[in-house]
Amino acid sequence: MSTPTATRTTHLLYLHGFRSSPHSMKARQVAARVQAQHPGVTWWCPQLPPSPREAMALVMEGIRAWPRESLAVAGSSLGGFYARWLALQIPCRAVLLNPAVFPARDLAKYIGEQTAWHDPQERFFFEPAFVDELRTLQDDIARLTPRQPATPESRFAIVAKGDEVLDWREMQAFCAGGEIRLLPGSDHAISDFDQHIDAVFAFLGL
C-alpha cells in the first residue's frame, strides 16, 4: 500500500479514549478550531461503543465514502491506538496523542461496570470479550506495521513523559518512524494541548 501524500486534510476523524467522549478537552479544542478556521473540513468525532470491534466497525462504516487521499485521523489514549490501527487499514495521516500501546494488557483490570469521565451518571459495562477484541487489533497492528513503515509525513505523535497512566517509553517505541513531539512533562490528558495544537494542524496541512 502507498504512503499517504501530504495533501491538505479535507476530512478529519477524532477518536476519544477509554471512558471518554466527544466532550473531552482535546476533542472540543480541535472541533472549535476546525469550525472557526476550517469550516469546509468535514469533522466527525463519534461516541465510541465500549466494544473495540463495534467501535472500529462504526468508524469504518462512517468514513466509507470519505476520500482516502485527504482523510486524516487523530486519537487520544485508546483513541490513539484505534487511530494507529485505522491508518494501517486505510493508509492516511494519523495524529497520536499519548496513545495506548497495549490496551488488552492495561484495560483487563477495568472489566466490569464503568462510569464516563464527562458524565458520571453515564455507565457502561466493559466485558471480558472486549479484552480479546483489543488483542485482535494489537495483532493486526503487529502484522501490518512491517509492511507499512511510518514516515514523518504519515504520522505525528505527542508523547508526554509526565503521563501518569501510560509509559512514555512504550509510547515512543509505538510511534517510531513518524514525527514525535516528546514533552518533558505534561500529563496523560496533555492539559497544555493548546501549546501544541498549531503543530497538529500544520501536520494536517491546515
Quick summary:
It is built from seven helices and eight strands, in the order βαβαβαβαββαβαβα.
Task: Describe this protein with a few key phrases.
206 residues; alpha/beta; Rossmann fold; two-stranded antiparallel sheet; 21% strand; globular; disordered N terminus
What's the CATH H-level superfamily name? Alpha/Beta hydrolase fold, catalytic domain
Strand content is: 15-25%
Q: What class, by secondary structure content?
A: alpha/beta
Based on CA atoms alone, the radius of gyration comes out at 16 Å
Low-confidence stretches: 1-5
**Largest sheet report:** 6 strands, parallel
CA distance, first residue to last residue: 25 Å
What is the helix content? 25-40%
Run of helices and strands: EHEHEHEHEEHEHEH
What is the strand tally?
Answer: 8
Number of domains: 1
Averaged pLDDT: 93
- Indicate the overall shape: globular
The appropriate CATH architecture is 3-Layer(aba) Sandwich
Question: What strand line-up does the widest sheet have?
Answer: 2-1-3-4-7-8
Number of helices: 7
CATH-defined topology? Rossmann fold
CATH class: Alpha Beta
Verbal overview:
About 35% of the residues lie in helices and about 20% in strands. It is of the alpha/beta class. The strands form two sheets. It has a six-stranded parallel β-sheet, with helices on both faces. Strands 5-6 form a two-stranded antiparallel sheet. The protein has a single domain (about 10-205), classed as Rossmann fold (3-Layer(aba) Sandwich). The radius of gyration is 16 Å and the shape is globular. The chain starts with 10 loop residues before the first strand and ends with a helix.
